[in-house]
Write a structure and sequence with these properties.
Layout: E1 2-3, H1 12-22, E2 27-31, E3 35-39, H2 47-64, E4 67-71, H3 81-98, E5 104-106, H4 107-120, H5 131-141, H6 147-156, H7 161-168, H8 172-186, H9 193-220
Parallel strand pairs: 4-5
Antiparallel strand pairs: 1-4, 2-3
Helix pairs in contact: 3-4, 4-9, 6-8, 6-9
Length: 221
C-alpha cells in the first residue's frame, strides 16, 4: 500500500496500527518511505469471499487515507510470501497504469496483462509482428475499417462467424469478405494453435497499449 504524494508525510506507524486493528492477527511493516506491506489474516475465505473481505475491511481505509493498494492472491504458506509480494507489486503498478481512479487493485484482475507485458518485455512490440500482421496494421492506418480489431474479435470468439458478426455489428456476408481479405494478407494458418497463440498475445498487447494511451490522453485533457 502506497500513500499519495499529498499524504506522504503521514506517519506510517499510524497506517500500520490502523490496518492491524482492522485485520486482527495481521502483520504490517513499513516499506520504503511512503509504503507499507501487509500480510492480512482474512481467515479461511477464498475466491470472491476473500475479495469481499478485503474490499470491506481495506477499501474504506485506503479511500480515506488516499492510498493505493495492490492485493495478491490469497495464500496460507509463508514460504511463498516473496512471490505474493511480487504479485501485489504488479497489481499496484499495472492497476495504476490502466485504472488510476481505483484504490484497490487485485492481481487476479491484471494477471493476463502482467503475463502479456512480461512476455513482450523491453522489446518493441512491432519487432514481434509477423509480416502479415504488419500489413494489416498498415491497412488500418489508411482505412476506417480495422482489420486488426476484426482479427482480434474473431480469434477471441474461437473463429465463430455468428458471434464475431454480432460483436462487431456487421452483416455476416460483410464479415466473411473482410476475413477473406485478412487471411490473404496474413498468409498464416489460423487453425494452427501456435499461430493463434502468437497472434492472440500480440493482439492483446496491442489492445493494452491502445487502452493505456487512452488513459494517458484522458489524464492530460
Amino acid at each position: 500500500m502506497k500513500l499519495s504524494n499529498q499524504l506522504e508525510q503521514l506517519p506510517l506507524g499510524f497506517v500500520r496500527n490502523a490496518i492491524e486493528e482492522t485485520f486482527s492477527g495481521s502483520i504490517v511493516f513499513e516499506y520504503h518511505r511512503n509504503s507499507v506491506v501487509a500480510m492480512l489474516d482474512v481467515g479461511k475465505d477464498g475466491g470472491e469471499g476473500f475479495r469481499a473481505t478485503i474490499e470491506e475491511g481495506l477499501g474504506p481505509f485506503v479511500n480515506a487515507m488516499a492510498m493505493d493498494a495492490g492485493v495478491s492472491n490469497p495464500y496460507n504458506d509463508l514460504l511463498v510470501a516473496k512471490s505474493l509480494f511480487l504479485q501485489a507489486n504488479q497489481a499496484l503498478d499495472i492497476g495504476l497504469l490502466f485504472e488510476p481512479a481505483k484504490r484497490l487493485h487485485f492481481f487476479e484482475n491484471y494477471a493476463l496483462r502482467a503475463f502479456i507485458m512480461n512476455s513482450v518485455s523491453d522489446m518493441r512490440l512491432e519487432l514481434l509482428y509477423p509480416e502479415g500482421l504488419r500489413r494489416l496494421v498498415e491497412h488500418d492506418d489508411a482505412s476506417t475499417t480495422s482489420y486488426v480489431e476484426t482479427l482480434r474479435v474473431y480469434l477471441e470468439n474461437n473463429q465463430s462467424i455468428a458471434k464475431t458478426s454480432s460483436d462487431l455489428y456487421v452483416h455476416r456476408s460483410t464479415l466473411m469478405e473482410r476475413l477473406a481479405r485478412i487471411k490473404r494478407e496474413l498468409g498464416l494458418d489460423l487453425d494452427d494453435p501456435d499461430v493463434q497463440l502468437r497472434l492472440r498475445i500480440l493482439l492483446k498487447a496491442m489492445q493494452s497499449r491502445s487502452e493505456l494511451r487512452s488513459v494517458q490522453e484522458r489524464k492530460q485533457a
